[in-house]
Automatic annotation (TrEMBL):
It comes from Dromaius novaehollandiae (Emu). GO terms for cellular component: membrane. Pfam families: EMP70. The chain crosses the membrane at residues 284-306, 350-374, 380-405, 417-441, 453-476, 507-530, 536-564, 576-595, 607-636. Its main location: membrane. Belongs to the nonaspanin (TM9SF) (TC 9.A.2) family. This is Transmembrane 9 superfamily member.
Amino acid sequence: MRLLAAGLLLVAPLCAAFYLPGLAPVSFCEEGKETEGCKSLIELFVNRLDSVESVLPYEYDAFDFCQDTEEKRPSENLGQVLFGERIASSPYKFTFNKAETCKKVCTRSYDPENNVDKNKLAFLKKGMQLNYQHHWIIDNMPVTWCYDVEDGQKYCNPGFPIGCFVTPDGRVKDACVINSEFNKKNTFYLFNHVDITIMYHKGKDENWPDARLVMARLRPQSYKHTDENNLSCEGPPMEIPGEFNSKLNLIYTYSVTFEEKNNIKWASRWDYILESMPHTNIQWFSIMNSLVIVLFLSGMVAMIILRTLHKDIARYNQIDSSEDAQEEFGWKLVHGDVFRPPRKGMLLSVFLGQGTQIFIMTFITLFLACLGFLSPANRGALMTCAVVLWVLLGTPAGYVSARMYKTFRGEKWKTNVLLTALLCPGIVFADFFIMNLILWVKGSSAAIPFGTLVAILAMWFGISVPLTFVGAYFGFKEKPIEHPVRTNQIPRQIPEQSFFTKPLPGIIMGGILPFGCIFIQLFFILNSIWSHQMYYMFGFLFLVFIILLITCSEATVLLCYFHLCAEDYHWWWRSFLTSSFTAVYLFIYAVHYFFSKLQITGTASTILYFGYTLIMVLIFFLFTGTIGFFACFWFVSKIYSVVKVD
């Protein structure tokens, strides 16, 4: 896996050594030569149709395409259901190594006087107008449409459009640019024919005599078939006028050819799709950009710890006389108040518990993705893994929340446990439920079935909540975290602060550097979610994740030190909010991405975009805030433990 190995960096080579469950190779042979481990029938499966102009995906059956008489639906995992994938069998069936030319699949007829026909055709036209894309699958591999882009590069798209539209003012939209015959105003052009090329690898020298499929490509075409008994797949394109006032017959056809391609191994058959995405150089630029920020921050932190702090501690520890003690200044002055419990300690402890749960979930998911377990070939695996891990990690959430709440001298432990188990997941579920209602009203395939919603609720209340209770039980049994210095009974007055040491400017500045590390990677993640591009660079993402951890920690520690030197000891909430403010920049970037990069139209799609974005922002807020808080907590405990206090 040459390119993938580069993308997944050091750990990726491990993933080439074994087959993942459900992803073992399938062997094919010619008709009449079938054996137990080899079959001749190649089935084409269809997935949901989606568009960059709409957040609403639709099932293949929602459009009036050719249906399989004996429709089969492979079992889908939780991740596929949550992402709205709906895979079904299709009437496109081929025999291995048997070429077909212009073979009819089905005919669809539309009568303008029949309201059902009018609605079906109107929905098909809407699909072409919004550039909805088919996603076909052969042997668990996307059937790609490859075409030339600038600089002689070839781009392979794992989807192809239903058709295209020429506007009433003659503007050629989307895929209509590929054919000069698509030029009639206010006309839709349907891609009712596909030329499919299936490439295979014969393993004569590799201890398996049969063939394995390594590539499936197609070229969408538009032909106006006049005689369905004498099909030629030539001539003018299939036009559907904007005004539907006469009977219309749509004949769907296909041609298929086979090619032997022994230079492509089965294990690296996804590479040609990934290689067509020229992002690797940008990724390295992103990593270098992030590393420069990390080095800058590390240098600042090292300078403070090695020089300033070292001098401070040496000076503070040399003071013996009470006269000298009166001249104390800086962070030692607030030693009697620095561990005073924060206001709203309940909410902070709940956020920390949830943030710990999200942090461990993200770390394990990305690590497994790096090892190749959650590759694009294993559909829905990433989301399934994340949800299952989140459910099973209720115990750390309960433990951290309870232990921190006890450290804050809180006494309402029942409220703490219930809020940890229900507050943030409840907000996410409520948002998700509202989004689901919109999808359900619109008839989208992304609407989660009622049974799946019940299953998610059962996982939450049946597994996650009890595990949170177990974690909280152990957290409350532990002693509170001991602080290195005692807290005074009377709070110290905080002196007047300069503009830069006031809470808000510090919090706003604190989020800039961590966001600077991730914004390039964020562009590719948003592309994979909203522009339906494949995301596979988990090695880069894991590196950026580690860099984000370091940056959040260092930025928070740095600002925390400056505030303590200014004799402001309210650091608990500030340390959480300093790094979690990165989530606000994430939201601002998502708004910018929506208006500058996406072509989404319609109120429902806009609400869905921002609804899902808010879930991402909340998760990121908890995750980054928790990292910053614990880094700062460790730093403050460390510096006050090495200074002599009377």
